[in-house]
Design a protein that fits this description.
Oligomer: single chain
Low-confidence stretches: 1-6
Structural class: alpha/beta
Mean pLDDT: 91
Strand order of the largest sheet: 3-2-1-4-5-6-7
Strand content: 15-25%
Length: 247
């Protein structure tokens, strides 16, 4: 019977959106395990913040420029983690047409182009792992989350397809649906509402940053390689409770 190589990360890890709180926590978790991380960002000031935190990074706005940029850093990704999402949240009928177009480009088209580019970079080694950070809103959106939830569902579908199509080439993919998280934008939204939302979660508390990062580290490890073309939910049971009308 084949033996699993435990605690072996698919690394080096390329992280899109490393400047976020989750991104920085993930980067340090990977580096603490001896892995190399390279972060992608869109602005020079974010790059400076990444470097000040002791991480490698580069500015990349156009996915098709990525191969050349990575060659300059002698970096061939074994894993790709996409944490980026826009702040587009609106009632379906409330968003102007030009903002809908911008949302579709940033949250769907651009993400697909990055995934396409990274998968092609992984092909020569016949080994790779792609991970998308989704949200429980994909399964149980609230009013005003039409565009946010749709983007998350679309991305999950793209990653499922990547895992389905590329597994025979050694490249797998999956998504993580995180619930209410007291970090980043979630912390801002939850100010003054934390207790209210905790009452909607069967575990009685928010999901911790350590729990989300720990799940991601596991999914980037060799022993999780068969978790492919699917979505893993880390929400304390929130979605199930909401679907049953208990939230």
């Amino acid at each position: 019977m084949p033996q699993l190589v435990r605690d072996t990360l698919y690394e080096p890890v390329l992280v899109r959106g490393i400047g976020s709180e989750i991104g920085m926590a993930l980067a340090h978790a990977v580096m603490s395990r001896g892995g190399r991380v390279l972060g992608l960002c869109r602005k020079p000031d974010t790059l400076a913040r990444i470097h000040s935190a002791g991480c490698e990074g580069l500015v990349c706005e156009t996915p098709e420029d990525l191969p050349q940029l990575l060659r300059a850093h002698s970096f061939v990704p074994a894993s790709f983690v996409d944490l980026v999402h826009s702040g587009t949240e609106s009632l379906l009928a409330g968003l102007a047409p030009d903002r809908i177009d911008a949302w579709a480009y940033e949250d769907i088209a651009l993400r697909a182009r990055f995934l396409r580019t990274v998968v092609r970079l992984m092909l020569p080694a016949r080994k790779g792992r792609c991970l998308f950070m989704s949200s429980s809103a994909a399964a149980a959106p609230a009013k005003g989350q039409a565009f946010y939830a749709a983007a998350k569902l679309c991305a999950e579908s793209l990653y499922n397809s990547a895992g389905l199509e590329m597994a025979s080439y050694g490249i797998t993919a999956c998504s993580v649906r995180a619930g209410w998280l007291d970090a980043g934008r979630g912390r801002t939204f939850l100010q003054g509402r934390k207790e209210k939302f905790e009452q909607c979660i069967p575990t009685g508390r928010l999901v911790s940053l350590d729990e989300v990062v720990g799940t991601m580290i596991f999914l980037l490890s060799a022993e999780a390689a068969s978790i492919n073309a699917t979505t893993v939910t880390v929400d304390g049971g929130f979605c199930m409770a909401k679907q049953k009308g208990q939230a």
